[in-house]
Amino acid sequence: MSSSWPAATVAATSVLQVVLLVVGGPLLVGLMRKVRCRLEGRAGPPIHQPLLDLRKLARRERMRPEHATWVFSAAPLVLVGTTLVIAAVAPLLTTSPAFGQYGDLFAIVYLLLLGSVALALGALDTATAFGGMGASRAMTIGAVAEPALLLSVLALSIPAHSSDLPAIITGSLTHPIWLATPQRLLALVAFVIVIVAESGRLPVDNPSTHLELTMVHEAMILEYAGADLALVRLGESMRLALMICLLADLFVPWGIATAPGPAHVGLGLVAIVAKVAVLGAGLAAFEVTVARLRLFRVPELMAGAFVLAVLAVVSALVSP
Amino acid sequence: MTTIGEHVELDLVPAGNHRRAAVVTRDQLLAAATALLGAGMRLALVSGHDDGTSMRAVYLFTSGPPDRRVELHLEIDRSSPQVPSLAGVSFPASRFEREMRDLFGIEPIAHPQPRRLVLHQHWPANWFALRHGTGHRPEMVADAGGFPFIPVEGAGVYEIPVGPVHAGLIEPGHFRFWVVGETILRMKARLWYLHKGIERLFEGRDVSSGLELAERISGDTAVGHSLAYCLAIEDALSIEIPPAARVSRSILLELERLYNHVADIGALCNDVGFALANARALGLREQLLQLNGEVTGHRLLRSGIRPGGARLQRLPGAGELSEVSEQFEDLIELATSNALVMERFTGTAVLDAAHGAELGVVGVAGRASGVGCDCRVAHPWVEAGAEFSETVRSDGDVRARFEVRVGEVRTSLALLSEMLGRAGELDSVAEIGEIVGSGEPAWRRSGVRTGLRSGEPSGLRSGVRTGLRSGEPSGLRSGVGITEAWRGAVVHRVELGPDRRLTRVKVVDPSFLNWPAVPVSLADTIVPDFPLANKSFNLSYAGNDL
After folding, report:
1. ipTM of this complex
2. How far is the C-alpha of A239 from the C-alpha of B124, rounded, in Å?
3. What are the extents of the domains in chain A?
4. What is the mean pLDDT of chain A?
5. B contact residues 249-288, partner A, Cβ 8 Å cutoff
């Protein structure tokens, strides 16, 4: 199968994936806000509002704290850069192995987390109380979320004997029963909890709060303005879209392009857009029904995810 | 002579509605205050006065039921204005004394915190806004000192400054936290960014233009403040208001409680990230505001209460109230059935009863900690009605403050339904002009004309003397108004000159008494829970800063 993917198709898919994330990320955030507003009985802004906000921010002056160094300026670039790299080289629409070792799930996941670390460093670099507070909280949550993520990725790769994303997906497509195994379901729950935590959604963080003392992610980016802020907003929405995309590819893989050709890739595109929209809307609907956890309860939730991931690994190892 | 406590004898003479007053000397003040506090009264108000050649401090103690109000008047030498500090026996007194020190330059002797409270550091020293003859705007200085933060030091302690400009649409206040990890070691609030000099603006106004000001002291407490103001005016002028007006006033007071409590309940849910309940609460609040608009012509219930009575455009309908009640119960069901919401409320920012009592906390915050009273019972001006019940909790956490609000909304709705049955004319206002012209207030006519002090020098500005001192027809008349506004007890004390113009209005918003409780409740609280704790008190900045 591998030889049948021409370089031109691979390159086109790459470009398509990048465009999809850059445009689709903000639209996904807009869609989730819209769903939330509607469920609360409010009209809500249009779905493309985040794109308009990006345009507005990009035109504004860059204001940087007096004592901030290059770390502060580089953080948004790292955040956007890492997500763009994943979008360009990871097989999101296809199971093409032409992406080679770049399709490794560990590599993808840790590239994603690199953006978080960059933002935390940027926040510390401002030397403000809020930057430090936000970074400390984000790293606390990250430190307990990552083991769970690591283990759930491990549990997914055991049946396929590979941590290669196309291999895992192809395996699931050929053996649909894999999707219903205990390890896959346990890993799914752990994975979802970690996505919620890493993307700063309820009940771990509240992206729409104006209460500066309660913020996690928002406290880290308080000092960004103008085009820098636009980059941060773009990066975080792309990250959210990427994580949901991975969720869709790993746990509901049907529709993904398994063969080259515009028709297959087009079908894969439609399928992934539909799946991400549905999952995003579902996440937004879930958010409406929950309140935010007390900060010190978040590690307990992450510990729960970790236990589920451990069980998933154990279950994967003992099953035939 | 009235004996209070064991050894204190006061020459208490009737001074107004349920109110008696005595002149005390500097040596007697502390003993008298201690005895009154010991007898279960609370210090509701301390007011400085500039009478021209001398100055005066008035200490108002209240308790109820039965409704009792006792005033102590202390004359102060203008050349070296000092009062003995009551800080040792009453925490609220220590705050009133600092306020008086800033605005009148009256120095409390041996005060434990001889620092500025109201005026920030850039106000010049020796400029006292409420002394007569003080110019309007002093030149601001770089730093006149006297407004410090006391730093906390230690390994791992860091400072978080927040405000005075906040991210949300809230009033300005500066909070400074000293934190280890996420646990708050100490929090200090710096307020008075909204100090507008309202008490001074009252001076020289006539009764009706004073009302306009009273309605605007704190926008969300238009009824509470205008009612306390009118009750004080009516006390001073001995106006008997028609029964129908009393019922109308009660309706307005409960309508104000309703829309504010509903908004607070929604905001509490919002602060724990449960925006769905807030959206519902805001919808209900809007419905109530529209009802308010039809009842008084103003969504925030202004211009319904008048000196001498009340003027409504229509009564709330029974159907409207039951619809509100239904939606409210749905809202509460939505919030209380969410385990995450209740978990966040429970055990957060506890103010225990001992601290609450010591700080003199009133209103919702007081009742949630099992202290304080409801002025609708303690100082009634209308028959409370069979439906009245007080909601009291003892936990003192956010949940208790939430539940007290829920209980009070239910009580308000029940009271409103009952009041509809008792309501009379929509427009019922006693003529105040005539009654003023008729001269002596009722309590003076009853033959009690004891001069509190003999040999009174004609001390007051432009020959005005206080009625208390000599009972002269040309004297000042004083009045006190107490209402249970939605946050708690609002107290106004007015003095009127012979030309019926206001010579002094002292306003006490419940927020002034309750603000010190917020830092106390934060012991063992974590930083991200502060907004929730603060919202559960939801104190007014405007009412505090005056």
Report:
1. 0.88
2. 55
3. 7-318
4. 89
5. 269, 271-276, 279-280, 283
